[in-house]
Amino acid sequence: MSQQLPPLNALRAFEAVARHLSFTKAAAELNVTRAAISHQIKFLEDYLGFALVERKNRSITLSQGAEAALPKLRQGFDNLGEAVHLMRSEKHRQSITVCTTPSFASKWLIPRLHRFSLKYPDIDMQINSNVQLVTADLQGDAGGMDTFFRQNHVDVVIGFGAGQVAGAEKLFAVSAVPVCNPALVSNAHPHPLQQPEDLVFHTLLHDESNYVGHPSWVTWLKQQNVQGVNANRGLHFNHVSLALDAAVDGQGVLLAIKPLAQSDIDAGRLCIPFNLPIQLEHAYFIFRHEKNNNNQVDTDIFINWLREEAHSQGRESLNG
């Protein structure tokens, strides 16, 4: 049976006094008067039956018994703080943390999240973007992914890569298509984009983000057998979002991952001048933290919703 504890206020006052070796500083920290601190220490000394502090002139020292008990007391307060944190976090159990690439978060996931919130209003979500999910190429071992989950405290990872890690589930395959501002296909333009050869009159925009498998004008032009267009000229960007912004602004033509450009296409900010896609070898994959039992139900709900969104995207592509 656990031993009876004295009032926590008295213990708290003593711990503050012991840390500062000052009644005045302890009182300031706990936002009480110096007399209140003195009263709590006297109460605790009477309860224990021995002196805790020794007053010498204007300084104080701890008694031998107080010195011996102090580490355990501090450990106890740390444990109490952790227990209170766990109890407070109970109300946040219905929440999940999702980690994905910055481009996927801003261009694919966030434009759809309102549908998830409407369908599941009781599930809170934290979205973390992490460039490691691009540069790592998702080809490490399963142990590496476990470490990633633990270090970043996430429930679900959505990444772009070859998906060679055990437990990877393909969300959807990826194609790339030329996209541009609609003004570049208008007959009012001196050289409207009507066929791939017209690219010779336009600036090529390049997504040169630091990840394996991004679209390449070299590959596209070769596959379409387009002659006379320098595949390396134009504007080069180290992030796909910058390249898409340049395309929206009418700066040129971008070979873009279609799912990332889709929201701008749907909004009329971008168009596909010629529907000649190329299939990329890499795809988007889902990983879940199997060892995290706190959010399994919500994680299942979110992953099922992702599958539904990906399936809907596939139907839209077939219809349009």
TrEMBL record:
SUPFAM superfamilies: Periplasmic binding protein-like II (SSF53850), Winged helix' DNA-binding domain (SSF46785). Residues 6-63 form the HTH lysR-type domain. It holds the Pfam family LysR_substrate. InterPro entries: LysR-type_TF_proteobact-type, LysR_HTH_N, LysR_subst-bd, WH-like_DNA-bd_sf, WH_DNA-bd_sf. Keywords: DNA-binding, Transcription, Transcription regulation. NCBIfam families: PRK11139.1. PANTHER family: GLYCINE CLEAVAGE SYSTEM TRANSCRIPTIONAL ACTIVATOR, HTH-TYPE TRANSCRIPTIONAL REGULATOR. This is Transcriptional regulator GcvA. It comes from Thiothrix lacustris.
